[in-house]
C-alpha cells in the first residue's frame, strides 16, 4: 500500500519538524496523524496507528492541547475522549520569539562587558539584526491573527 | 570579581541560544567569548579561558567560520592563527528558514493524504501561516543585507 507508506513518511516528517520546536517527536507524530483526519480520533486509535503506549498518547495529546494544536471532544454517554488537530502554530511561534527576545536581552547585557568600541559596535549590529527579525515575525503573526478573526465573523 | 561572573554568565547564555540553532554549546560559548573581545584571540587563550581542549576549540572555531560567525587571521611569521567574531547571523537564520521551507513542502505533500475536505482546508491554513512567516523573515534578511551593503560603501 504505497499510500500507507507516504502517510507514515508524512507523520515522521511532522514529528521531526515539531521536535525542532522543543516538543517531543511523539507529540509531533500524533499531530501529523491528526492533521490528515477530518473526524476526531480516540486515544486508542491513535496509539494503535502510531504504535504508542496509552501513557505516551495521553502525554502527547496533553502537550498538543496546551500549545493550541489540538482540542479534545467529549463523547456523549462515554468517558472516552476524541481528539482533533487545530491548525494554529501561533503559540509555538510566539514561544520561539520569546526565546529569541531572551537572547536579545542577553546580548544587550553584554555591551557593558566588551573590552572596546569595536566589540561594542559589533554586538549592537547583532542585536539590531535579531530585533528586526523578531519584529518582522511578530508583525506577521499579528496580521495573521487579525485576518483569522475577520474570517470567523 | 563580579564582572568575571557576569562575563561567564553571558558566555553560557550565548552557548544556550546558539545550541537552539543546531550548533554545539561549545561553539556558542566560543562565540560568546569572542563577541566581547575587540582583538583577535589565539586558540590557546580561548581554550584556557573556556576550559576547552585544543581539539574542542578547533572544532568550535571551524564551525563558527563555516557559518560566517568568525574569521581566522594569520599571524605574520607564526603558524598560530588568531580568531575574531563576525557579527552576522544571516547564514544561521537562512538555514533555519530552509528547515521551515522543508516542513512547508512536507505539509503540502500531505494534502493528497488527507481523508476529507475539512482536513485539507486545515492543512492549507497551516501552510499559509508558515509561508507568511518565512516570507516575512526572508524580506527582513534581504532588507538587512541591502542596508549592510550600503553602509560599507
From TrEMBL, chains A, B:
<dbReference type="InterPro" id="IPR052362">
    <property type="entry name" value="HTH-GbsR_regulator"/>
</dbReference>
<dbReference type="InterPro" id="IPR036388">
    <property type="entry name" value="WH-like_DNA-bd_sf"/>
</dbReference>
<dbReference type="InterPro" id="IPR036390">
    <property type="entry name" value="WH_DNA-bd_sf"/>
</dbReference>
<keyword id="KW-0238">DNA-binding</keyword>
<keyword id="KW-0805">Transcription regulation</keyword>
<protein>
    <recommendedName>
        <fullName>DNA-binding transcriptional regulator GbsR, MarR family</fullName>
    </recommendedName>
</protein>
<dbReference type="GO" id="GO:0003677">
    <property type="term" value="F:DNA binding"/>
</dbReference>
<keyword id="KW-0804">Transcription</keyword>
